[in-house]
């Protein structure tokens, strides 16, 4: 690609252009009002359409108005996403004609360009939480900007409570004459539901930046699309061949989908005639090397249409100029959405209506545009209105563990924007205690600290951490990942008998966990052969999702110095004992009449007919799921010995004994 020559005249021209650009951003006309409001208030909420200039301009306004400085304290701007933090810092460094790491810098995990000179620092919310552990009152900052507040990630919610508390303490200290600067808080969001933020920050003032959004024509598909990649590809080239100029932004759920589609688009594009307008495919996702991310922002070469294939990173946190067409597959990878094992950030899920509108809006930034939704209007109507706050989605024990790991000891009186009930908080604490994640004074244990670093519900992270002691990490990883998907089997209604017969081959006498393991081992032996999967009624898609999760967990194990390949071979009791360290409360013992009574709660539970343990008798059973229908059914069940229980959870069972 041609690089423009860097002569001084050109640089000056570029600088001039940048200034002009800044001045014509919608937020510019509100500059004085914004500065005055921040000056006069402790906390301010700014609502504005994506691309109006909130993230890049407001920190500059604050600085220009002298509301932050090396003496008073600097500005921190949090971002839920790493790429956004890096990208925004670069942009603002450019706009302020400074080098990265000078006036403007960023801090993300494993990469820190900030320095003593930095006045505006973009950082991930995780990094600010980490700074909090070193500097309780975040004294180095005068202004903290919590950006992308509408996303309501667990970390952002944690920061809301913590920063509010810090502000109160600093204000008190300053009032008592201590040499402490009061803290200013700015909350920025792209969606309109600002009242909740305002209420939380003691009726903080809300500023609306009038955005500039041109009309966008929105189309749905008539039929649901079986393959969103295929549908995206077709749509991209229909736009390219039939519609006028303008770049295309395609929203896809994750890196893998983006890479696959990028290859396909390139293949198709190669077949275009030379006389036709060409196509340039630009992927954009968090893990992409920064040098490649830049392509997204560079103007397309002459006679070329850019097709940007992005995750929901392009939804509100990064604005790409030149977009006239949006293709929305309606899916996103989300954190904490798998209630089965509480895996975070890993599963593809339908987006909310407000996300869909945000995506649509990307087509109308500079002129009117068009949005193609690759789902039906009925599907759209069924979407949730807003993305549910993560703290409401993930297991509360996991959320509390995170809070504790971030230094909030008293999680009961923590200031939650969406406060869970006291009973559920207490229950979650009890769970953490019985898992030995916290001690009897509620402090995080060493084990708890390590559990907090895993993207799993605490029960499952405990199993994986303990698997090193039981010598069965390989097996634990396999089973945990398989438990994360709906079912690795499928049963066509007209072939029930055949499916059951095919499945019998994998059955393990000790139940479902080891049966799953048999399936995966067989799958690996045939290298996932599709014919074999079909013959054995294996749901390939779900197995692949599970393996994807497994890969991620393997990386977490490596980071925690747990060799992921350690296997117990044929000593499979080890696997079940290991699972008990997390699931000791999900157990039931055989009664003389042949029923099973749960160890906790003394409930009669029935083994689900789909389980390998159905109709069998064992001294005790352990299960991962309890389903309420007409009876209490348990699923994913294995046989255990009652003598294993005290070893699996000494704290819990000794307490029980003491209280009897
Ligand atoms: O935060 P908000 O969505 O309101 O907007 P912003 O991120 O501050 O971006 C303001 C404008 O700057 C966008 O409309 C983009 O056109 C431009 N921008 C850019 O060209 N390159 C970047 N890396 C970031 C922003
Ligand atoms: Mg922004």
UniProtKB/TrEMBL annotation:
Q: What is its EC number?
A: 3.6.4.13
Which SMART domains does this one have? DEXDc, HA2, HELICc
Q: Cellular component terms, GO, for this chain's entry?
A: nucleolus
Instruction: Give UniProt keywords alphabetically.
Output: ATP-binding, Helicase, Hydrolase, Nucleotide-binding
Q: Where is the Helicase ATP-binding domain?
A: 35-210
Recall the GO molecular function terms of this protein's record: ATP binding; double-stranded RNA binding; hydrolase activity; RNA helicase activity
Q: What is this protein called?
A: RNA helicase
Q: Which reaction does it catalyse?
A: ATP + H2O = ADP + phosphate + H(+)
For the keyword ATP-binding, the answer is yes
Q: One biological process GO term for this chain?
A: positive regulation of transcription by RNA polymerase I
Q: What range(s) does the Helicase C-terminal domain occupy?
A: 228-407
Q: Does the keyword Hydrolase apply?
A: yes
